[in-house]
């Protein structure tokens, strides 16, 4: 699936959805857009000691994905194993977290 | 601009303590003020991260001035996550250097035990930018350094045993530090087999939850350990926005500023206290501070270059990993160890130590402060 992002209406820079301001041109006129949810795992960790809110999910993988279209994003995967360099694609967004799965084929 | 010196230091024992935050603050500050000869204090700076959340107490500066009988001097509390103490010291130093005050008391403190671990973990997570998808993904503070560690090992061929060597070194130093939290001998095997926290980091790779306080008195003039320079920098608090994950730019930049201001470089430093909140962080820091090339820090650790007899002894106090990490106290406690080293009366004394460096990191690279000190007359 595609990843929701914000895009600056004056300089077209792609930003995370949590942003209020374009660092490139100082505009605050940002509109919702989408980019491809495909990329590669740059690194990861498997978290055993989790905060209260996530304790029932531990252990779980948190991954840092370098998206093909340039943005980097911290997300999750429910794959059994994870390797740096794995090609992944966005599967779903649940409670604000991006879940990726290994890209098949 | 004036010269500025550290003329007194005090520190509590670190660990799980019954003492209140106030009791610890007063104890460390009393010791520092008595050693300094009970000077007239012009201002107080307190570094603290989360006393409101963790100890149900704010207004630490005013409380301290009142308890110590310092009169109605101005007092300030600074917050910069784990760099709160280093930032407090820097503010005090800059104001003395600028001529605003002659003598300033700087303290750092944190009360972290007495609460359940989950509450403490949540409080520590306040040191991340939580209004993003990153917080929602369940990334933790240690988790950030787990991600860094996996990439570092992938790029440079380091192994978990190299991380363990950092933990072992710092534990071996802590054994000789009477205030340290962990003074029990350990081994590479025990460290490698400890319970996992955030792969590849295990229990011994992570600094503990600690109570403690530290204090120093600084004064205009050259009558003590001289503060040669101060450098501070910020970095992004979000992992996904870090340009190069294996660099902590705030550490590098704060060091660059401090080296430049002192007219010194990494080769001039005889002893270092740096921010080893995790074993991985120490390896990154020895590279960012310029002691070793990028990607070579783990080999330096393996070759024993970061301890006595090597290139530069690092964390002779036991570091955050084994001395303990009472968040707001850490930056000041590092300075206490460097001051003791330069006064020739430290645990794990480094022979002929003349110049020392302290580096204090906040968040996952959000803040860094570096101070460089010299022995009197150098």
Radius of gyration of chain A: 15 Å
Order of helices and strands of chain A: EEEEEEEE
What sequence of helices (H) and strands (E) makes up the elements of chain B?
Answer: EHEHHEHEHHHHHEEEEHEHHHHEE
The helix-and-strand class of chain A reads mainly beta
Mean pLDDT of chain A: 96
**Count of strand segments of chain A:** 8
The helix tally of chain B amounts to 14
Q: Main sheet of chain B?
A: 9 strands, mixed
Give the strand order, joined by hyphens, for the main sheet of chain A.
4-5-6-8-7
Globular, elongated, flat, extended or rod-shaped: what is the shape of chain A? globular
Question: Helix proportion of residues of chain A, in percent?
Answer: under 10%
Strand content of chain A: over 45%
Topology:
The complex is a heterodimer of chains A (105) and B (378).
Chain A: E1 3-8, E2 14-15, E3 30-35, E4 38-47, E5 60-67, E6 72-77, E7 87-94, E8 97-102
Parallel strand pairs in A: 6-8
Antiparallel strand pairs in A: 1-2, 1-3, 4-5, 4-7, 5-6, 7-8
Chain B: E1 4-11, H1 21-35, E2 43-47, H2 51-55, H3 60-68, E3 75-78, H4 84-97, E4 103-110, H5 117-124, H6 133-136, H7 141-156, H8 160-174, H9 188-192, E5 196-199, E6 201-202, E7 212-220, E8 225-234, H10 249-262, E9 271-273, H11 279-288, H12 297-302, H13 319-323, H14 327-342, E10 355-362, E11 367-374
Parallel strand pairs in B: 2-3, 2-4, 9-10
Antiparallel strand pairs in B: 1-7, 1-8, 4-7, 5-6, 8-11, 10-11
